[in-house]
Structures are given as C-alpha cells and as structure tokens.
Amino acid sequence: MAQIQLILGGARSGKSRLAEQRAILLLEQGAVNELYYVATAKAQDEEMKSRVFAHQMQRDSRWQLVEEPWHIDKLIATAREDALLLIDCLTLWLSFGLCEMGKAATIDKKEHVLAALESCAATVILVSNEVGHGIIPLGELSREFVDESGWLHQDIAKVADRVDFVIAGLPQCLKGQDV
C-alpha cells in the first residue's frame, strides 16, 4: 500500500532518524521489500562531506543509496510498489534548484514532484527542514528560499497521508494516524 509521509523539523531535530526508523519498521513488517535512501545533498566542501559520511555510517546495509540532487520526480514516478523511498532532504533539493537551476525551473520541477507523488505506487517518506519559524531574512535569495520552502511544504502536506513535525527528537503528528 503506497503512502506518502512528510517529516518536518529544524536542524538536528531527529527528523531523519524518525524517517529511517519508520522505514525499517515497514520493511520488518513486510509492508515494503526494498529501501532506497535518496540523498539530495551535494557534498561540495569538507564539512558537508563529513556530514554525509556520518549519515552513511549510521545506516545499515539494507539501504540502497541513490544520490540525486534534482530529478527526484523521476525516481518517485518509476518506483515499484514494494519499494520505499526515503528522500532526505527537500530543503537541500530546493536549494540546489534555486541556486543551480533557477526559480522558474524549480517551480516547474516542484509541479512534476507533486504529480509524481499523487500517482506514486511506492511508499515515500520525505524529510525537510522547517525554516519558517525564524525572522524574515534580509537577503532576497534567502527570503525566496523561505517562501518557496513554505509553499513546497504546504503543497506536499496536501497530498501526504501523514505529516509530522519533530522537535528535540519528539514527533508531533499534524496529519494522519499515529503509527
């Protein structure tokens, strides 16, 4: 049974850990047969390489890693029914889009992602940073990023079966049923 979950939270809130735990539970229950970790980060400096490595070391061998900073819509659209895609994270995907592809291309790609989610046969868990709780940024690109991430989260929350907000490692269910 395909299901879309969105897990939001701040940096180091525990959202990725929650997503991984839910995915493993679904695998162990037999609800899915394959786990794909879709990493949207591009490790372009030593600090980011260190973060990526730390994440990789925490995951067990049941995960198949897919590094994809942009074409997550195609992965979602072609995923098999017995697969689970954990996409971590949407804010890095959005950053790549706005900075590398441009605003118009990013808005267009978002529509493709939403369409793929609506017709997806697989289970998809999307992880993203909630950045709208802070002050309004001074720079134009930063304001654009906050706006676009807020709209992205709202649009995905509409199609998601479940939405959680994680703070201090504690998930709060915003939409759907507690598992």
Automatic annotation (TrEMBL):
Entries under Gene3D superfamilies matching the protein: P-loop containing nucleotide triphosphate hydrolases (3.40.50.300)
UniProt KW keywords: ATP-binding, Cobalamin biosynthesis, GTP-binding, Kinase, Nucleotide-binding, Nucleotidyltransferase, Transferase
Top-level taxon of origin: Bacteria
Pathway annotation: Cofactor biosynthesis; adenosylcobalamin biosynthesis; adenosylcobalamin from cob(II)yrinate a,c-diamide: step 5/7; Cofactor biosynthesis; adenosylcobalamin biosynthesis; adenosylcobalamin from cob(II)yrinate a,c-diamide: step 6/7
Entry EC number(s): 2.7.1.156, 2.7.7.62
GO terms under biological process: cobalamin biosynthetic process
Primary enzyme class: transferase
UniProt GO molecular function: adenosylcobinamide kinase activity; ATP binding; cobinamide phosphate guanylyltransferase activity; GTP binding
Active site feature: 55
Catalytic activity: adenosylcob(III)inamide phosphate + GTP + H(+) = adenosylcob(III)inamide-GDP + diphosphate; adenosylcob(III)inamide + ATP = adenosylcob(III)inamide phosphate + ADP + H(+); adenosylcob(III)inamide + GTP = adenosylcob(III)inamide phosphate + GDP + H(+)
Record's protein name: Bifunctional adenosylcobalamin biosynthesis protein
Organism: Pseudoalteromonas maricaloris
Taxonomic path: Bacteria, Pseudomonadati, Pseudomonadota, Gammaproteobacteria, Alteromonadales
Gene name tied to this protein: cobU
